[in-house]
Amino acid sequence: MPMLTSQVFLSGQLTVEDMTSFAGLGFSRVVNHRPDDEEPGQPHASTLAQAALAAGMIMVHAPVRGLPQPEAVEATRQVLDALGSHGKAVMFCRSGMRSATAWAMAERLRGVDAADLREAAAGAGYDLSRVPL
Hints:
Elements: E1 8-11, H1 16-24, E2 29-32, H2 45-54, E3 58-61, H3 70-83, E4 89-92, H4 97-109, H5 114-123
Helix pairs in contact: 1-2, 3-4, 4-5
């Protein structure tokens, strides 16, 4: 699973079953950047949120189509702020790219240098060179 920081990890589509696994690994937050009904058979955000809650985690649905809009970036920033120094979050969309972009834009709001964000994303396998940070 790609890691952006020691606290933030990326994934493709998660399932209901994944929620228990991630909780067992010490994750406290899940950010779903995938819009509902993007693809047939994809679990709905409300179903995943219920599974996350049952596993003891909080899930935030901040859907992104294309470049993350301010609402999704702000929701992502709030999750990052809530992690403190010991929490862990997994962020997902179909491939992880929209999640990586939303994470980087949220971190810019928190004052992190754009070059450092691009480097972290590249280390996780995501090219943010064309993303306006």
